[in-house]
Amino acid sequence: MGDSIHDRGRAMEDLFFQQKDQQLLEKLKSELSMKQSRDQLEQASGIHDRDVLNQLIEHGVTVETLLSVGMIPLVAVAWADNVLQPAERKSIMQAAESSGIAPDSAAYKLLEFWLQDRPDRSLLVAWELYIKSLKSQIDVLAFNQLKSQVLDRAEKVADAAGGFLGMGNRVSEAERRVLNELKAVFES
């Protein structure tokens, strides 16, 4: 009988350590996967700031969806007043198409996800960090072209569904605040 209790104790101990080993293995796999994702995104984007890369990854941005990062400001403007209008969605999808985001791509699916459910503020914060990091890595002319393109597209989205019966001020106060915030990011 003593051996039976000892055997059960040993089996429980083995099971405990097997579970702990499994947990450690899963944690290691997760950390390795995060590092690989970060390394791939760093290589594709040219961004070297680990915090920026981690935040982008947390929002579903991968090498395959990197094109969708350029759509984040448009999504933020469209959701500024807590309602995504069909005309705003159409404007964003046109911008996505002109940016080379194909309907069957992962970037397109991620963009659709952001248009279906309003992303939280941290997505825009991740984009802001991305732009600030990018500013130090590209020349002034390229950065100014990027700024112009993003702000023009964001303005078109804000203008897409505003006003009453298409008349009056077509850009809401909330949208204007987001547009000003986007401009400030480029100027900081």
Q: Report how far apart the termini are.
A: 76 Å
| Helix-strand makeup class | mainly alpha
Q: Which parts are unreliable, with pLDDT below 50 for 5 consecutive residues or more? A: none
What profile does the largest beta sheet have? none
- Average residue-wise pLDDT: 82
Query: What is the count of helical runs?
Result: 8
Q: State the shape.
A: elongated
H/E topology pattern: HHHHHHHH
Gyration radius, to the nearest Å? 23 Å
The count of strands amounts to: 0
Q: Into which percent range does the helicity of residues fall?
A: over 70%
**SS strand fraction:** under 5%
Summarize the structure in short.
By secondary structure, the protein is mostly helical. 72% of the residues lie in helices and 0% in strands.
Topology:
Blueprint (H helix, E strand, L loop, with lengths): L1 H44 L4 H9 L13 H7 L7 H13 L7 H11 L4 H15 L4 H21 L12 H15 L1
Helix pairs in contact: 1-2, 2-6, 3-7, 3-8, 4-7, 7-8
Give a description of the structure:
The chain has 188 residues and is an all-alpha fold. Helices cover 72% and strands 0% of the residues. The chain is built from eight helices and no strands. It has helices spanning 2-45, 50-58, 72-78, 86-98, 106-116, 121-135, 140-160, 173-187. It is elongated.
Pick out its properties.
mainly alpha, single chain, 188 residues
